[in-house]
Amino acid sequence: LPDDEEDEDDVVYDIEAVDLGLSSGILWASCNLGSKNNKPEGYGDYFTWGETSPKDSYTYNNYIWNTQNKYKNKSYIELEDDAARSIWGELWRIPLKEELEELVEECTWTWTTLNNVNGYEVKGPNGNTIFLPAAGQFYDEPYDQGEDAVYRGNYKRGQTFNLHFYEGSVYTMVEMHEYSGFTIRPVRNKTTETY
């Protein structure tokens, strides 16, 4: 390519805080945590509950909180163990159970594609939208990319709360997959207050 032209794959997008007009007033990020060049359709990286870095594989045996007692009593993720805050800064964090439920209940979900990536366009009550790619999951290796997704929320260890979807179905649930690698779509307040 000529020097004055950029390859579309090299374009880096700003991470926007999108106001969907939700009752809580929470803002949702325009891309997943770790998405290449911050593209809305990028799958991003995968994270366990309470770990702040992606890994090459996600197993029960390499999960940090199996050998440390910090979360023995099933506490919520502390800010220092919140991957979104650790990577993007103190304004961002992993969504809470109530925020994931609000996203499902107050928005219109339409299965679509963005730049050949399957996922959901999520339209808020005010008409603004975000795109959630079908990023699949990651255990010993990644799977189901393009078909479904599990987005991680901040809830109790041993009872993680996640957003699941595939074409035709969107739901939230409590489950026991804390050591699995799931996608994160960060949130933040409207103001510049930190958490």
Structure overview:
With 195 residues, the chain is mostly beta strands. The chain has helices at residues 83-88, 97-106, and strands spanning 17-19, 27-29, 108-114, 117-123, 129-133, 137-138, 142-143, 148-152, 160-166, 169-175, 187-188. Strand 1 (17-19) and strand 2 (27-29) form a beta hairpin. The longest helix is centred in the middle third of the chain and has 10 residues, at 97-106. It is globular, with a radius of gyration of 16 Å. The protein starts with 16 loop residues before the first strand and ends in a 7-residue tail after the last strand. The model is unreliable at 1-6 (pLDDT under 50).
Percent helix among the residues? under 10%
Average the pLDDT over all residues and give the rounded result.
Answer: 89
Biggest sheet, in brief?
Answer: 3 strands, antiparallel
In N-to-C order, the SSE pattern is: EEHHEEEEEEEEE
Give the strand order of the largest sheet, numbering strands 1, 2, ... along the chain: 1-2-11
Poorly predicted runs of 5 or more residues: 1-6
Give the overall shape, derived from the CA principal axes: globular
The N- and C-terminal alpha carbons lie at a distance of 44 Å
DSSP E strands, number: 11
The radius of gyration is: 16 Å
Classification by helices and strands = mainly beta
H/I helix tally? 2
Strand content: 25-35%
